Task: inverse folding
């Protein structure tokens, strides 16, 4: 009964709504028509007076409308995302009005192949038309209209639910203020199609399948069970399976020397297969996996960039490092396309061992991202960093990256310009530039907790390793690119610098000056690797892996044909440039450079 | 007919040999008895007079005795490893006498579940006893004895064939001079067991399976086909599938909106499933995958180190970077155990996009490793590097690692000692130490072509990234550990150095001296990052990521409580130590250190 307590949405019921009448059928993407269409849905929380707090959750393959709470006091299991949705949770039902519906083609209340075909008065079976993700979303939009929703603060979903999220943002740009796509992809890989195909083969070849009209006889449980087992292997990661099962035997010390299931992982799969056939319809499995296989934004729009061209949502894209079904690389591709199309997008690849299932199993970190992003989307504007003292304290910059050059860099940037801040940390500089100079800023950062800090500030922040380049950005797509105190820490400074010069009209670079007099003196008189306030680590534990002076960088720019517009040698804590013998007296330096 | 040409073993025939009579049955690992046992086998090449050139090849799940050449002039497809076995190929039939037999439980001539059960005069079906990898190897040994083989120059196999290789080396240590284990594992992961279990489930649940007695009626083709499809997905890599199929449609531009196979990857799997059921027996599939699931050297011997304790073979272990079925990490674990048990072992993780199937699809690079290793095993001893001029020229050391300190380091090593050379390059130093001082040497190297060069020299060489530590080696397991011109290039010098001090009684370290007078002068007078003969790269393209002087290293050793036994400051090309003001005049330095 904990599920009706204060952290739960409590006792909820699944409602049903007819969104399409039989005499006015919906035209599907395939060209076929379908009607009537009923939709099963649940809602939690309250729509506020402004009507701006509605959130739609889209479920994945085996989900349904029942996201959170319990449907009856006797329910042993709460809704499928109860960990994430409820009062004070990642998707906070105290703040937001949450809707979820079973999608078209499902088997949990919404019209699907198990529904009665009005032509035959029997279940549709394989006479149900092939449906697509776009068809599912169309039906969800009809439901939203019927519920009197004028716009959605966010559409949120993982896996196939994430595909619906992307489709929503593309199909209804003015309706969707933000889109949160979790562990998803813009198209299935060949490998994922292959797994789906084997699962469908197992169902279609089951001798009980009876061409889909198995409702009066035995169900194709064997085929559906096999499909589900294959699915489950792909939802977990290899390391997750190893940790959970290893090579444990179910109940014995030694082998049984027969073909019964004896490894723990075998009995787990048996159980998953068995429990699934009790609650799911084999035909729905066919239709939903086919819809997933068909989803392909590149194919439909010519390119991902074109697919996202008309969207107006803020995007948050989340992947999980160990997800090998819908991989981080696939998420990264959609993020790159969104960034290239100049859309506001944030991205984080969350470290987790749970594979694809992590979107259900990582409520804490995922919840932080969701609540931070939703709050920032719901509140207006971005404020100066200094006003967020708690945040600053919580996400303190690592000392090696502490930047006395922030104020000076800010003074170099013209109002209303576009800025890309590489290694932006907790987003302090970007927030200030946004608040004070109305800059349109984007950040790139590698550390997960700093990415989260930026999301909380409402910034567009992409988790990325700058060593991999910026292939997604067009030439000269930013007025300024900032690389503060980072050049000396990258493996290939030349490659990185050239890439920044390509995408930025101006590149602002700062680094510690290795030819400062203290360095020279230490090497000369002590015969040791220099250690100063600015270069404060020992030779063996420094993050700095290249050492350069102002003169080195001058030579470097000359060789690369880079124009130095400004060169500002600085002491460690003073904003006043050093005029006399800068390569001797400056501890650090800021360059404004460009290459035409 | 190319297959009977000069690069082919030509027309070959599969022979059969009874190795166990019915009245003297073989006792299996399960305790059950089996007899008679017939073995199907092929041989190529000639056993030499010394009888020391016999090689046994062990096949994988779907293989058979027919490795190379053709069985009839009409054969369209040659044997399963024709690319590797033949005159002048990786396994050269001009030099070696090659044997391969279909394994116990198979369905290509050797006794298996399809054979006639003498008790019932019907095929065994599920009355066939469960067999293990050890049982398979026992039967192979009986065949070798019957063929008059006194010892094997090598046992070679990939995948399940590799398991047999490991079992051979453990069960018959005096019979096996070398063991080449390719893309294999000492135990299946939970994920691999899961895939096998789903495949067996599909077969067992097929309505045609009839408890295994399907020989008079329809075969369980659906189940076997599903199993094979799952298998094929695991044999390819995600990137391999993407390159081969992508999301290509078989024959249309647009979707068919039905459940027929339409993606190219679907029709590929259909074909693989279909062609497999025509040539393979479903019961054999059950028995072989079960044998693979049961194989677990850790479980059987308590630990891998114990499993390998009594082996006397030289080992070559090969994995493929994109193999996610039997992973590089699994190969690495067996290599670590062999190294820990002080066995001669070489290892390379070959860069390939072809996944598990790479062992069949990378004949060139894999063939180089095999031929080099076999030749070195067949010829006696290791000779000085200078005598292998062709090799030296072919595998030239990268200039950044060229070592003028080799001769001096060689002079510091006592005869008959044990040496671990970290970053050993093409093995020049190790070869010389072995030839001149009878040192028992091992090398660690990261670059594939340098690993191959060491294998060709007959050295024990493990591909490994030193940053990951040396956890497999016990404390003080070498008389000397050598780290030549590498300390300044590793990310965490302290961690690496401490690890070397743990495993070596003495650690010999050499590095360029950053406080050489030229460096001091350049920084002082030019205000630029030093660039000398020894530090010959620019600040931005140097592999050196830490800069240290003799004094820095003295301080470092003092802080770590490391005793410096010898310190030899050197000029770039002179072997005579620099006595006066070494931190000012030495370009490089060699330390002999230890920590008790």
Result:
């Amino acid at each position: 009964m904990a599920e009706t307590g204060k952290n739960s949405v409590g006792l909820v019921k699944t409602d049903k709504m007819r969104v399409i009448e039989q005499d006015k059928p919906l035209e599907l993407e395939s060209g076929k028509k379908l009607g009537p269409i009923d939709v099963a849905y649940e809602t939690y929380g309250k729509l506020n007076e402004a009507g701006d707090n509605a959130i739609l959750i889209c479920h994945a393959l085996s989900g349904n409308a029942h996201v959170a709470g319990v449907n009856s006091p006797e329910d042993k299991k709460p809704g499928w995302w109860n960990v994430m949705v409820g009062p004070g949770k990642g998707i906070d039902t105290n703040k937001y009005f949450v809707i979820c519906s079973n999608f078209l083609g499902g088997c949990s209340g919404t019209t699907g192949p198990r529904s009665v075909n009005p032509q035959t008065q029997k279940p549709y079976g394989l006479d149900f038309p092939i449906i697509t993700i776009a068809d599912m979303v169309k039906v969800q939009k009809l439901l939203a209209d019927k519920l009197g929703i004028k716009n959605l603060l966010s559409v949120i979903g993982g896996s196939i639910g994430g595909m619906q999220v992307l489709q929503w943002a593309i199909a209804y740009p003015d309706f969707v203020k933000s889109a949160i796509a979790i562990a998803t992809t813009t198209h299935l890989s060949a490998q994922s199609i292959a797994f789906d195909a084997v699962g469908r083969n197992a169902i279609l070849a089951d001798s009980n399948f009876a061409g889909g009209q198995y409702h009066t006889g035995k169900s194709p449980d064997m085929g559906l069970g096999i499909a589900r087992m294959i699915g489950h292997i792909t939802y977990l990661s290899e390391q997750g399976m190893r940790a959970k099962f290893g090579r444990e035997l179910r109940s014995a010390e030694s082998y049984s020397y027969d073909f019964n299931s004896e490894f723990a992982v075998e009995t787990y799969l048996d159980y998953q297969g068995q429990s699934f056939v009790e609650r799911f319809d084999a035909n729905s499995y066919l239709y939903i996996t086919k819809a997933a296989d068909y989803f392909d934004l590149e194919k439909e729009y010519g390119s991902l960039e074109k697919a996202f061209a008309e969207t107006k949502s803020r995007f948050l894209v989340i992947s999980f490092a160990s997800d090998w079904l819908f991989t981080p690389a696939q998420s990264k591709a959609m993020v790159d396309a969104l960034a290239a199309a100049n859309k506001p997008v944030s991205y984080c690849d969350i470290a987790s061992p749970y594979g694809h299932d992590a979107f259900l199993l990582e409520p804490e970190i995922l919840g932080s991202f969701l609540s931070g992003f939703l709050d920032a989307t719901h509140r207006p504007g971005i404020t100066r960093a200094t006003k967020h003292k708690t945040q600053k304290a919580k996400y303190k910059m690592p000392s090696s990256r502490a930047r006395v050059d922030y104020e000076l860099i800010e003074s170099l940037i013209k109002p209303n310009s576009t800025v890309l801040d590489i290694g932006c940390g907790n987003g302090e500089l970007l927030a200030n530039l946004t608040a004070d100079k109305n800059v349109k800023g984007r950040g790139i950062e590698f550390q997960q907790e700093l990415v989260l800090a930026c999301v909380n500030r409402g910034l567009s922040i992409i988790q990325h390793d700058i060593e991999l380049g910026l292939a997604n950005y067009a030439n000269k797509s930013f007025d300024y690119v900032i690389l503060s105190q980072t050049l000396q820490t990258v493996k290939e400074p030349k490659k990185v610098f050239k890439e920044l010069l390509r995408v930025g009209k101006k590149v602002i670079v700062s680094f510690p000056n290795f030819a400062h007099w203290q360095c020279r003196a230490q090497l000369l008189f002590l015969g040791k690797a220099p250690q100063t306030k600015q270069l404060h680590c020992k030779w063996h534990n420094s993050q700095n892996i290249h050492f350069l002076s102002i003169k080195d960088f001058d030579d470097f720019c000359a060789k690369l044909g880079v124009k130095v517009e400004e060169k500002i040698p600085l002491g460690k804590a003073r904003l006043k440039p050093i005029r006399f013998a800068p390569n001797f007296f400056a501890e650090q330096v800021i360059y404004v450079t460009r290459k035409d």
Summary: Chain A touches chain B through 83 residues (CB under 8 Å). Confidence is low (pLDDT under 50) at residues 387-402 of chain A. Residues 190-205 of chain A form the longest helix (16 residues).
